[in-house]
Amino acid sequence: MPTADLDLLRGTLDLLVLKTLVPGPMHGYSIAAAIRQRTDDAILVEEGALYPSLHRLAARGLIAAEWGYSENNRKARYYALTREGRRELRSQEALWRRYVVAVSKVLHPAAEG
User: Fold this and answer.
1) What is the spatial distance between Cα 36 and Cα 40, in angstroms, rounded to a whole number?
2) Which CATH class is domain 3-107?
3) What are the backbone dihedrals phi and psi of residue 38, each rounded to the nearest 5 degrees, phi first?
4) What is the pLDDT of residues 34-45, one digit of tens each?
5) Where are the domains of the chain?
C-alpha cells in the first residue's frame, strides 16, 4: 500500500477515535465496538490498527490515558480527549467535510458532458 494511502487510513482512524471519545473516556475494546456499531459493521477496527492510533494520539497530547476497571471488572486503560484533542477534532472534522465535498464533485458532477 502506498504511503499516501496509509496516511489517509491512519488519519481517518485517528479522526474516528477522537470522535468516539467525545461522550467520555472509553477503553480500547469499547472504542472499536462503538466504531463498528456506529458504522453498521462497515468499519471493523482491529487491535493492530487501534492501539497504534491510540499511541499516536497520546503522543501528540490529543488524548490522555489512565488505568481503570472495565464493565466486567478487568483492568483496562481508559482514553479521554484532552482540550487539545477537542480542538484537533474540530479542525479535522472541517477538513474531512471539505474532502468529502471535493470527492463528491468528481464522482457526481452536476452536469456531465
Assistant:
1) 6
2) mainly alpha
3) -65, -25
4) 999 999 998 899
5) 3-107
